[in-house]
Every structure is written in structure tokens, then in C-alpha cells.
Amino acid sequence: MLIDIHGHQYPDAFRDLFKVLVEREDMPRPEYDLPRWDVDAHLALNDEKGIDLQVLSLTLQSYPADPAAARDLIQTGNDGLAEACRQHPDRFIPFASLPLVDVEASIREVKRAVTDLGMKGVILGTNVRGAPLDEEGFLPLYEEINRLKLPILIHPLDPKGPAQAYTHRLELWIGWPVDTAYAAARLVLNGVLDRFPDIRLILSHLGGATHYLLERICQAGPKAQIERPVIEYYREMFYDTGGPVSSAAVRCAIDLFGAEQIVYGTDYPFGPNGGSEFIDKAIACVRDLSLPQADEEAIFHQNTRKLLGI
């Protein structure tokens, strides 16, 4: 059985509104067109690849600058995802996006997403138009997410690096994984996870650069005002296999955090061949390790079942 915790889709109404915002320069023009969602083709591909259940969320390069535009765009996307998931409840689970440029609206939206739309978690970008996720203004939102005991999928956004970072799209291949590492480290070291202990983090793309840099990140712990050693927070996070990642990287993450913290994810529909190649890589990076069957089953579906309570 396969449960994919890291899939994306873009309902038609969301794509239409997104195009309007790009044309009026409220959103950066993406390097790619948002793929059109053909639900039947999506389900057929999942059948072909053996994906039984998939968590779906929206993701973008950045958030709209205008709070009203952000509210409209995110609500439109969440409504579209929720409707498709209601039509296929045994195949799709929705995670909510939030208009993070407006914290009060984000609090209202997360309540609506859970109460009215039946969403099981939230996705947050690693920065909000350059602002880090641990800024004090976001704390009321974390308080609500903590109250609801929702998992948070941390997904990288454009970190706005120097011009040379954009050659060969290195801002995507290097900058985004590093921004994931920054975001998680700041949430740990600035005490957000101490203050809101029922928040469970899922780090996209196996945590980005996190596991390679973890020993260095831990060196910041003694001067931080936190309650436990740094490594303990990271051993409570979850790390998905989307992105793509190598078997060596998965082996490293298992050694650091345990197989019980690794979850299958694909980053669909991104990647070559309409996302098909990343789906295959997300399976191979685990199976190539010849893990005990119990560990494989934990990664491919049991860990996500426990995390989402399904």
C-alpha cells in the first residue's frame, strides 16, 4: 500500500485567478504554467503507480502581496481541492493553504478549512514574501493550529537569493532545500515548538538540507532559549521522500531520525514525464535500501496513517 503525503493540484478556478494576479503583477510570474488538473487522468496514474491515497495541497513560488487577493486566491483553491476530495474520499485527502500575508484571515481560514471543508492539515511556505515563519506576528496562527492538533507540511518557496542563484534554476535545486532547513531551524531555535507542543511538522523533500547540516544546526542550541536538546525536536518531525531524493539521503535520514519519521511523498505533478518520474524515484529511493519489510511498510503508509489519524 502507498499513501502519498506530498501531492499538489490546482483547481481550474484557482488557476484562472492566479493568472489574473500574475498579469496585474501581484504575483511573480512563474517559471512554468500551473498544470491543469484532469482528475480522471490523475486517478488513472495513481492506479498505475499503486498510490492508494494521496494528500493534496496548493503550492506557489510566493504569496500574493495584497491581503485581499491572497484571501480570495487561497479560499478559491481550498474550495476546489475540498470539492474534489469530497468526490473521491477514498483516494484524496486535502491540506489547507493559508493567506499568510494576513494572519487574522489565516486563522479564520484554518478554522473554516477544518470545520467546513474537512481538511486534515495545513501547508505553509518556508517564508512569507521573505519574512521567516517564526516571526512573532504568526504566533496567534500557531496557537490555533496547535489547538486543532493539525500537522503542518513545510514546503519551500523562493528564498529570493542573489541573481547568480537563478542560473540553471539553482534557486530551486539548491536554494529551496536550504530554505527548508532555515525555516525548521528557526522554528526550533526560537522556541515556537516549545510554545506549541502539539504542532507536528512534516518537512518536504526529506527536510531539504536539514539532515546534512544537522550537526552544525545543533551547535546553535546551547545559546538558544529552548527546553530540550536540538536533536530531540528533529526526531519528532517527519520527512517526506518527494522532490526527488536519493537512496543515500533516505539512509542518512533513517539513521538520524528513525524509519518511523520518514513518510512517502512524491511532489506530484512536478518532475519529468508529468510527475511520473518523481513518483518512481520516491518508491525506488526506499526499496533500493532493502530495508526490513516492517520499515518499508512504515514509510510507505503506516507512518502517515498514524500522523493523520486515518
What does this structure look like?
The chain is of the alpha/beta class and 310 residues long. It has a single domain (2-308), classed as TIM Barrel (Alpha-Beta Barrel). It is built from twelve helices and ten strands. The protein has helices spanning 12-23, 39-49, 67-87, 103-115, 139-148, 170-189, 192-195, 210-218, 230-234, 247-257, 276-287, 293-308, and strands at 2-8, 51-57, 92-94, 122-125, 127-128, 131-132, 151-155, 200-203, 238-240, 262-263. The strands form three sheets. Strands 4-7-8-9-10 form a five-stranded parallel β-sheet. A three-stranded parallel β-sheet has the order 1-2-3. It is globular and about 45 Å long.
Give a summary of the structure in a few sentences:
With 310 residues, this protein is an alpha/beta fold.
